[in-house]
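Worked example 2:
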Amino acid sequence: MTMGQRRSLGERFRQRVGGVAAEAFFQGLSNAARLHPQARPERHGVEVIRDLDYRGTGDDFHLLDVYRPIERNEPLPVVLHIHGGGFRILSKDTHWVMGLAFARRGAIVFNVSYRLAPRHPFPAAVEDVCAAYEWVVENAARFGGDPSKLIIAGESAGANLTTALTVATTFERPEPYARRVFERGIVPIGAMPFCGILHVSEIDRYFERGKLSPWVVDRMREVSSAYLSGPEPEHGIDLANPLVMLESELEPDRPLPPFFAPVGTKDPILDDTRRLARALERRGVPCETTYYAGEPHAFHAFVFRQNARRCWADAYRFVDRCVAD
């Protein structure tokens, strides 16, 4: 075995151990938070319908939960929420707080899981969220939602998938799963990519911002290598890099919706949100980009923090404006 091979094995081992540790950490936080009395949906006037199969496969990756106000005047706006986790870890169950947060403000929330890399590399996750979008458009009304007032939201990897799905509704793409979404003819009234990793294929660009810890470097390289570990798909990897599409000269076939793109100033992937804001401004698309001083990646998940509460208040105002327009 060469030295290079030994380094490669060592790097893969560190990435695997780091990924397991990260998943255990966030799963533990989620489980602990559920024990708090304020985590009970009924205390917020919300009910939850769990584990609906949006692809009919019986696979846990293809389940979603519905969060909705117990007392409601139908139909209500709809939020499709897509969890983060570097395309490799976590699920709808770790991101229950997002479903609860939107539902307690009067939305019908569909909180989805999807297939994870490296076992299921790109384009599996995009294919799944496209299928979830179709399912929500078709089924939202029976849960009290209005599919014509649909907003897509997600953080980190979920922000990537949020942006890719929004692209699929507005650009006529060749991928069969994206084409089916486009043919539905329903464009979201808003897109909410929180702290997104929006350009996966050139991960080393993040390191130009300054010194990052070895743990962070490994996690970020792991995101790219795991998500793009499969053979290149027939139609390329455009939808793995939705930011690059929005920066291109391609014109959408339907108008893009307004965006809300919050991020912390200490987030190592901050630059992708800055690039998104510039790309949308050039296209004349409204983009509310808010930078929260001193906050790390996915800070809004820690809802007890002042800036997290501020971020959620900003998000609610964005939803209200989209629904009112």
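The mean pLDDT is 90. The domain at 3-324 is CATH 3.40.50.1820 (Rossmann fold).
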